[in-house]
Amino acid sequence: MDEQVEDPTKHLSSDKLLFLNSPECPFAQRTWIALIEKNVLYSKVDINLRNASGQYAPDNKPEWFLRLNPNGKVPVLAYEEERTIHQIYESNICNEFLEDYQPSPSLLPPHPAVRARARIIIARFSEAFVPAFYRLLLRQDSEGQQQAAQALSTELHWLEAHFDSMGPYFMGTEFSLVDISLLPFFLRFGVLQHYRGFSLPSECSKLAAWVQEVSKRASVQETSVSAKPELSYEKYLVWVYERYADGSAKSTSAADFKD
Ligand SMILES: N[C@@H](CCC(=O)N[C@@H](CS)C(=O)NCC(=O)O)C(=O)O
Predict the structure, then answer these.
(1) Fold for the domain defined by 8-101
(2) pLDDT of the residue at 2
(3) 20 lines ligand 1 (CB under 6 A)
(4) Does any ligand 1 atom lie closer than 6 A to the CB of residue 250?
């Protein structure tokens, strides 16, 4: 890592969550959106995952960061309560934690079976869509790219078929953890278009309308920020994924999804 931030775990408190973020990370964006939607008090620390030349530096993470998340990944939430430090990581688990930590406003449907359905959608998205998204960028051979594009297309059609018939949100009238879990990857579709010529299939009209609608939310706007002032958010995202698309990314995420 290039610039190290001062150890923020020295100042943990019980009434303010520490949130370790990276502006380029879709998983961290999930938790950032949930924090804003929940009106939780938090202090955000941006972790620079790269060195001075813009390459990922997975072996150069501060010791306090690895103590909070031994996987060395953002997002992380942490707070101190009665001299115990609580540390939470994995974006979907961070967001479920926020739902428990501050139940109102709720980001899950009230009916137990519908809640379970929301979780099924999030789990499938994480297991199938997210790996296909990264693989489409990471694979340098056309056969691998075609397989990833096919897998992504299957997942998009599955999502379109499972979208609430009325909308405007994925589960119906209420914005939920399903919208939050999915959206950061849809915001990055311009990257797939730029590097691989892949775009949302025209049949996925409910998803297309949903992206337009949800992108207007204040929490989404606030978290869609370019960390390079000279670049628009869209161009910043294209820059972020350059190392993935040319096969040179050394990040742990690249290693997670390569094969
Ligand atoms: N499954 C994790 C994935 C988190 C993740 O991969 N974060 C990336 C940034 S987008 C990271 O921190 N990578 C560290 C590295 O590449 O060294 C989650 O949902 O939180």
Answers:
(1) Glutaredoxin (3.40.30)
(2) 46
(3) no
(4) no
